[in-house]
Amino acid sequence: MTETLALDLARTQFAFTISFHIIFPAITIGLASYLAVLEGLWLYTRNTLYRDLYHFWVKIFAVNFGMGVVSGLVMAYQFGTNWSFFSEFAGSITGPLLAYEVLTAFFLEAGFLGVMLFGWNRVGPGLHFFSTVVVAIGTLISTFWILASNSWMQTPQGHEIVNGQVIPVDWMAVIFNPSFPYRLIHMSVAAFLATALFVGASAAWHLLRGRDNPAIRKMFSMAMWMMVLVAPVQAVIGDLHGLNTLEHQPAKVAAMEGHWGGEEETAGEGLPLILFGWPDMEEERTRFSVAVPRLGSLILTHSWDGTIPGLKEFAAEDRPNVPIVFWSFRVMVGLGLLMILLGGLSLLQRWRGRLYQTRWLLRFALLMGPAGLVAILAGWYTTEIGRQPWVVYGLLRTEDAVSPHGAGTLGVSLALFVVVYLFVFGAGLAYMLRLVRKGPQLEEGAQETTGGPGQQRHAMRPLSAVEENLDDDHETDRGR
Amino acid sequence: MGIDLPLIWALIIGFGVMMYVLMDGFDLGIGILYPFIPDRHHRDVAMNTVAPVWDGNETWLVLGGAGLLAAFPLVYSVVLTALYLPLIFMLLGLIFRGIAFEFRFKARDHERHIWDKAFIGGSFAATFFQGVVLGAYVSGLAVENGAYVGGPLDWIAPFPLFTGVSLVFAYALLGSTWLIMKTEGELQLRMFHLTRPLMGILLAVIGVISVWTPLRDPAIAERWFSFPNILWVSPVPLLVLGSAILMHRSLASGRQVAPFLLALLLMFLGYVGLAISGWPNILPPDISIWEAAAPPQSLGFALVGALLIIPFILMYTAFAYYVFRGKVRPGDGYH
To answer: Which of A415, B79, B157, B184 is 20 to 30 A from residue A161's alpha carbon, by CA?
Structure first.
């Protein structure tokens, strides 16, 4: 009993800390690349809009990056503190992958981040641009390694098991395991989309309040182009990822579809696509289901009457929690469809020349601000909970991976994490939104100071300026 | 027998942890010294001296964790399980310390005290619990059949608590000498005044640990005091004394860079002293690096990357320090 409780607490703690964590790197990945594009465009076109947008977003990036660093440090140690038997079992594979991430990505980001954030006036424009690009590349290298590690846990290969420990045999096979390419592309694109939605919502908020300037229009336009061009591509990538999962983790796909199989299935009728319903794990069927006949076959097997293994083909103790997987998958797909819709509507209004004036579109874009992050979380819940009861698929069960802590110890640490995270990251979010609310300032960063020590305060400390102006803004609001 | 992979990895991890102690040591030291820097603008300056580099400094700690998982998964899982609570407290401390860098400058005036306190409390907690982890680790953990069998609060013992307090003074010394090097005027003068007593306390602390460790463990006494070992290891305490004398003189003559370099040397010597006591056990008191090592396929694969990439890391880290060289003055350099 206490052991089950301890396992649940350990899982809750990991889910809590990693759910908070993933939000920050997702925005970091997207914003770093966005900033590299903005600075590149500024240097190439000399259009000051791009420079002003750079200065606006780099501050938000700094706050977000700091939160990603501190929440990520926790993750690097949680594998050992909470999942010690997993570390002993699989550390010989996940350890080197994590070490490569630190060596090739974390140091790179940290080393050039200082120049990127604080060096605008200390190094030449070329070197500053180089630093921004290196940070952006660092975030993608980081994505590469951590997803290689996660994908190996989903679809392990290239190893042997000797004395209850994984021994790597073929590192290329380990890294480029079957689900890795799909997961890498799906997640990277998701990070770009989530960031674009955040950027677009920020612009929409200003436009709705009548704060209209060329920089705000530019960022809204760029974000909406991302929806037009990238959101549909993401749907295709997601479909391919799903087919890959069907091949390697069929129980997960069966849970995503709420498909139980067994006697109720009639040969030759194909697989319906269940749109909504409630998967009942006791009765082994999906209740209240609303389904489209044959659409499931069409999507999953690309044929008229193909079928997939149902949940009943897996022993009850080898099935994931079906309702969570079923619904988190629908949340992700639903939000993805809304992104495509947003892209389409923005294209329509752009064509009509009313992109920046259509209030319902701006409101829609504003509401969609957090949608990318919610979709990322829902997608990760689908794939991680869908992998259960395994932590390394088919090799190590989660219940055998957990550290032997008492429920009391875990309760204390979980409570501390919840209190600290809500306080710290709540404040961080508030500061980010406060910066967003201030909006891009035209001609910011135009000061031609050389940046040597002893320069005047405001030129060198835009953030102090930010802070004062924020107070002004605050008072204006109250006065209104 | 070819290359001794576990040995090389022990050295790499040892190097990483040493880099962490030296570099994040002065960042954390600044947080510890914050209560002695009441003026807001002085606090801005002190924080700005490390704002561009603290993240890189902390990354060495991530390398320590990842390297340990890669090369010695047994140690990683046992140590992190055994020292669960102090490590969690350390991580929470590092969270408060880390976010303070950004939040403090974004806060409105009436909110800033919150992030000052987060910076101070976070730095204290992270340092103290690092010291506790270190002390508990070198005292040895209760391990049977590759699993921790002790209790969750075994670390509450005189020696780990003492090493926790000791590390607070050590990092404070690194921080005060760093600020002597990077600042000027009133703030620098304040740091000169603080460094003297800190130096005295730290010497006393080193003395206590040097006597306490061999008394607790006859094997360590044997290592240090038997002949001919004593010939090989005696330079360590002698160098400690020598650098303490030099530190005293350099402070008296108002030198600006020498105190920091000497503080680094002192930390390095203390670290070497611990390594001499523990060698070659990676899980004190009796599991060696060879017994705890990951399979050679893992060690070899990760080693290629480590040896190729660490030199580049050192190069661009040096570059980052070079870009932000010189004294930091009020109003300098934030974003």
So the answer is: B79
Residues B96, A420: C-beta atoms closer than 8 Å: yes
Q: How confident is the model at residue B131 (pLDDT cuts 50, 70, 90)?
A: very high
Residues of B in contact with A401 (CB under 8 A): none
- Residue B325 burial class via C-beta count within 10 angstroms: exposed 0-12, middle 13-18, buried 19 and up: exposed
Which of B49, B114, B298, B315 to probe by mutation at the A interface, max A CB count within 10 Å? B298
Q: If you average pLDDT over residues A304-325, what whole number do you get?
A: 84
| Domain assignment present for A414 | yes
Q: What is the pLDDT of residue A475?
A: 36
Among candidate residues B331, B162, B307, B191, the one with its CA nearest the CA of residue B259: B191
What mean pLDDT comes out for the span B192-205?
Answer: 91
In angstroms, the Cα distances linking A16 to A66, A383, A400, A413, A425 are: 19, 16, 20, 12, 13
Q: Tell me the shortest Cα–Cα distance from B199 to chain A, in angstroms.
A: 30
Our CA-based measurement puts residue B158 at a distance from the nearest CA of chain A, in whole angstroms, of 22
pLDDT level of residue A401 (50, 70, 90 thresholds)? confident
In a 3-state reduction of DSSP, which class is residue A480?
coil
Residue A232 is predicted with a pLDDT of: 93
List the Cα angle A180/A184/A189 in 5-degree steps. Answer: 155
Reported ipTM exceeds the 0.90 cut: no
The per-residue pLDDT for range A178-229, each reduced to its tens digit, is 999 999 999 999 999 999 999 999 999 999 998 888 889 999 999 999 999 9
Out of A251-265, A267-281, B175-189, B208-222, the most confident range is: B175-189
Q: Is residue B329 part of a domain?
A: no
Backbone phi and psi for residue A291, each to the nearest 5 degrees, phi listed first? -130, 150
In terms of phi and psi (left: phi > 0; alpha: psi -120 to 50; beta: otherwise), the region of A262 is: left
Kindly report the average pLDDT of chain A as a whole number.
84
What is the number of domains present in chain B? 1
Cα A287 to Cα A270: distance, rounded to the nearest angstrom:
19
Axis crossing angle, helix A2-45 with helix A48-82, rounded to the nearest 10: 160
Question: Residue A37 sits in which domain range?
Answer: 2-245+322-479
Please tell me the distance from the alpha carbon of residue B171 to that of residue A30, in angstroms, as a whole number: 36
Q: What is the mean pLDDT of chain B?
A: 87
Instruction: Give a yes or no: residue B328 inside a domain.
Output: no
Closest-approach residue (CA) in chain A for B50:
A114
Of A88, A112, A467, the CB nearest to B108: A467
A304 within some domain: no
User: In terms of residue numbers, what domain contains B86?
Assistant: 5-323
The total domain count for chain A is 1
Q: Which residues of A touch B330 (CB under 8 A)?
A: 457
Nearest to A100 among B94, B109, B305 (CB): B305
Does pLDDT of A440 surpass 70? Answer: yes
Domain assignment present for residue A430? The answer is: yes
Is residue B334 assigned to a domain? no
What pLDDT band is residue B82 in, cutting at 50, 70 and 90?
confident
User: Nearest-CA distance from A99 to chain B in Å?
Assistant: 5
Q: Do A118 and B52 touch (CB under 8 A)?
A: yes
**B316 touches A110 (CB < 8 A):** no
Q: Does B152 sit within 8 Å of A453, measured CB to CB? A: no
Determine the distance in angstroms separating the CA of B153 from the nearest CA of chain A, rounded to an integer. 10
Tens-place pLDDT, residues A285-305? 887 878 787 788 888 888 777
Structural domain contains residue B153 = yes
Q: Indicate the SS3 state at residue A49.
A: helix
